[in-house]
Known about the structure:
The protein is of the alpha+beta class. It has a domain at 7-264: Kinesin. The radius of gyration is 47 Å and the shape is elongated. A hairpin with a 2-residue loop joins strand 2 and strand 3. 60% of the residues lie in helices and 14% in strands. It has helices at 19-23, 35-49, 99-112, 168-171, 176-199, 211-215, 239-252, 267-294, 300-318, 322-481; strands spanning 7-13, 54-66, 69-72, 83-84, 87-88, 94-96, 115-116, 124-125, 128-139, 151-161, 225-231, 263-265. Residues 144-150 and 290-299 have low confidence and may be disordered. It is built from 10 helices and 12 strands.
Amino acid sequence: MFDGFNGTIFAYGQTSSGKTFTMEGVVSDDRLKGIIPRMMDCVFEKIQQAPANMEFVIKCSMVEIYMERIQDLLDPRKNNLQVKGGAIQDCTEQYISAKKEMEEAMKLGSKNRQVAATGMNDKSSRSHSLFILSIIKKDKNDDSTKTGTLRLILGRLYLVDLAGSESVQKTGCVGVQFDEAKTINKSLSALGNVIKMLTESSTHIPYRDSKLTRILEESLGGNSLTVLIITCSMSSFNAAETLSTLRFGNRAKKIKNKPVANMERSSKKLMQLLSEAEERIKRQVAAFGYINKRLVVLKDTEFKSLLSEIHEIYKMIKDNNAQGLYNLLKNGYTEELKETSECKEEQNIRVVSNEKLDKENNYLKQKLTQSTEKLLKLSIELADSKKSLEILKDEKIDLEAELKVKNNEISELNDRLKLLKVKSKVEANNNLKALAQVELKLENLSFLYNQKNKAIEQVCKALDRILFDEQLTNINSSAVIL
């Protein structure tokens, strides 16, 4: 990472197999520390050993993917972040100046992470967590205004703690936890499909099937050095899950990444590298031309005459004819001298022509530098436009996906509304029937009430007659006594 390479370490395995403990461990215990705290020790140890002229900028962020929604663990208010161009948009990046600050950031993120108790783990992770560390290295003595060779080295490290694959029969999840288990297994299946397509050299890799594979696009077959940690259960009760995990790791080993150092050079440095490449090409072309000119292509008659001379020399050596051999070599030497003098004259002519060519070459070189500068500007503008186009494409895809989700929600609401209308009509009919029955009962009751009132009135009249008759009898009896 200090040399500008991207890196990824992620832990994969079934639930309750020790992924979170492997990545985080016990921060306060040197023996039980996880990978993330040990990475912090290594980073700050490297910085302490670096020369005094090197300057470092360290940033860290921590997010989780819960129910296919990216949530910022350092700022829980950001609970639906988007991925554009392989980067998480609007994610909190905390600048780090000491190891203690990074440890506090990790503790805060772990505290805000979604966990729940299941039948296999009392603190089961219900989301994928990503701890992202970025380091920018810069040489303070390398002044771009003087030398034009300023260079920035950027390295990024992803430390991923995946949620474990779950068998609902074993974990006993119900309700919300059941929905979480379905989402986790779906996301891990998307990761497995991406790895399968990469190992089969498929033309289409389905990175967009989940947020996890979208973020880890460079880590899987791209510009990154990737390490996969497999965690397995020791119990025979989980033998099937352990075998599936090992098969996943075996497939992942076949992926071939293409890591490249991330360095930013100034335009002057790029021009310097371009001129050096041109000089190397020029030297190679000159050497090839020299060799090409020294090659002698013999005709058939010339080859036969050369062969006869070789036979004559061999015969003189065999017969010890020293004088004849001396004369032959002397004639050949004089011919060579003539040829060398002619070659010198040709060489002088070439020197003059080479001077003219050098002047023309310098002029063309100036034109080339100007055109390369324009080309660099145009390439930068083209790259920016491509990036903006990719961002717009990603936004379009995200908007289309959101629109599809909203349309599905609207259709579901319409279906519910129709059901409610039907239910309300049925209930209204039932209520009308009940009301009619109540009214009928009320009429019956009022009829009975009227009959009872009439009966009571008749009884009252009868009682009045009886009382009147008693009073008459009493009066008659009193009159008789008198």
